Amino acid sequence: MRGKAARIGRGLELWLEEERERLPLWVPVALAIGIAAWFVLPNRLEWLAFCCAMLAAACGALLLPPGGRMRRAIIAGGLLACAGCLLVWGKSMMLGSPPLARPTFVALKGEVRSVERLPAQRMSRVLVRPIGMPALPSLVRVNLDDASMPAGVGEGAIIAFRTRLMPPAPPSLPGGYDFARRAYFEGIGATGRALPPVAVLRPATAAPRLRARLFEHVLERVPGKGAGIAAALATGDQGAIAQADAEAMRRSGLAHLLSISGLHVTALIAAVIFLLMRMMALSRRAALDRPLMLVAAGGGALAGIGYTLLTGAEVPTVRSCIAALLVLGGMAMGRDAITLRLVAAGALVVLVLWPEALVGPSFQMSFAAVIALVSLGEHPAFRTFVAARDEGMWRRIGRNLAGMLATGLAVELVLAPIALFHFHKAGMLGSVANLVAIPLTTLVVMPLEAMALLFDLGGWGAPFWWLTARALDLLLLVAHGVASSPWAVVLAPAQSGTVFGLILMGMLWCLLWRSGWRWAGLMPVSAGMTMILASPMPAILISGDGRHVALRTADGGMAMLRARAGGYARDVMVESAGHDGTLQALTTLPQARCSPDLCAVRLRGGRRYWNLLLTRSSVKIDNAVLARDCAHADIVVSDRRLPGACRPRWLKADRRFLARTGGLAIDLDHGAMRGAKAWNDEHPWIARPSGRPRGYRGGQL
Hints:
Blueprint: H1 2-18, H2 27-40, H3 44-61, H4 69-95, E1 104-118, E2 123-130, E3 140-145, E4 158-165, H5 179-186, E5 190-202, H6 210-221, H7 227-235, H8 243-251, H9 262-280, H10 284-289, H11 292-310, H12 315-332, H13 340-353, H14 361-378, H15 380-386, H16 393-423, E6 425-427, H17 430-456, H18 462-483, E7 489-491, H19 497-512, H20 522-534, E8 540-542, E9 549-552, E10 558-560, H21 567-577, E11 583-585, E12 592-594, E13 598-605, E14 608-615, H22 623-631, E15 635-637, E16 651-653, H23 655-661, E17 664-667, E18 672-675
Parallel strand pairs: 3-5, 10-11, 14-15, 15-16
Antiparallel strand pairs: 1-2, 1-4, 2-3, 4-5, 6-7, 8-9, 8-17, 9-10, 12-13, 13-14, 17-18
Helix pairs in contact: 2-4, 2-13, 3-4, 6-7, 8-18, 9-11, 9-12, 11-12, 12-13, 14-16, 16-17, 16-19, 17-18, 19-20
């Protein structure tokens, strides 16, 4: 046995020696594992246990023979994972803003910190610092309708209004968007809608920021539907894009064009370097005696930094800017800078400064796309295929198109699991759409927009804005055409984080190693994707407040308890279920018997029928009647607190129960359910009652 272990150890050492150039790439991965553990594990006892386990692994590695790469890798990995958990834990304690304890109606007076206009929704998001109200969080975000927006509201203004403040919204269903987590790290402790009238006690003390002025300028100058996209390309603000156009861009796989990231930063820096080189080369003395490339690279770096700051310094933009600066530095030193080490360095910087960004789709998708592109570009076979050679024009064009299609497919395959996990849908035709959209955006739209802004300094930009609008019309035509295809997207219901983590680690294993062992990563990727695609749609979805209930019908459709529910509630239900059809009213189902106050529904699940009882109104129901009906039901769902006399056979999901579990997804085929939050979750953005949930009779939640 000892001899076999020694042979395995020697084999691992030989493999790590072969992959020695790739080992530094795992430094940000190890740090990210610790950060992810803090978000996944529910309480401080488990966070401490994870840190202790990582330190124990590092200490245990000291027993391995000294000098080996395996020993150093385990020690470094354990220490980095522990450091990642402590890093995000420490930041959450020092910089986060606890949420409002409970909803409250207040007359608020505060100083405006920022105003984000959303023309497509005819409203603005106003960030306010309350004055003289210590019981409120330090920052509050309120929505203000355009019709109620008075003059003088801007940064530095003091305003007064009435509003009903709520804690930032947690995910309403398992796998849903967690705004509460994001708001905590952004310092926002409450949200609400400002009620008119809004009084301006002191008008804005400063002129609107350059980003806001540029946003308004572009919207005014671009004619047609593409104005919102033009403003997003210039400022990163997507608030003016119509909902139908934004959805078409997502379904067609072109949404990345709307988020300022590598494509935009690279195009800007390349354009600045090109122009500076050509302008400086007009001087013979400068061309012969000065390092023009170094000077142009410096100008491009300044332009990239300025563009990043102008567009809000979002994670993809920061990552792209850091990567571009490293590339320019490598070029200045005469080295090949576009490598995975550059990507790893950018990821490490972002994780150290913004560890909370790890769990967001922006970080995951931007870095996954870049890793896929660089890994493919480093592969010898791909390099040979796309290398320049002496051949005819049509063969060269065909080879370039094939290379673009291959890179698009690689990115699409890598991003599909991430999109399915976060958005429950993934584009399948994005590689085809991007063959047209990326050259159109990079080579036509962005240069035209830059020329229009430049000529606007003299008042001559109108022709360029008209050309920009026509190019954007073509971009939208491509987006809507691809999005209308039935093959445009693949849908999947919400998945567990375990399956998602399995897929991510498998993809990283395939992309970061170079020896034949990298293909072992395909096993967890294939297993995870099979589990996602084979997972059935939940039979019952219950929102966190108990008001909205969606049921899976016998024909595969979905029916909703409250047919007049708002668009947001309906969209959340549809997306979480992985359903691409319409929602019908539950009262129209033949197996439903409804009164103004109650609905009784009989559903087939597994090898039996399940009886559901749902409340529809706030009218008090006689306890004897309610007790009788509950006794005949397997599951009772209500947005109110039900009395103890209501005792269903399997689950009583009333307001008290849902306050501890959040929204529910129930699988009747296996008699199981998932909650949006754990009963023992101690993350600081969770506003929840204490105690274990009661009312579930089917086993452990």
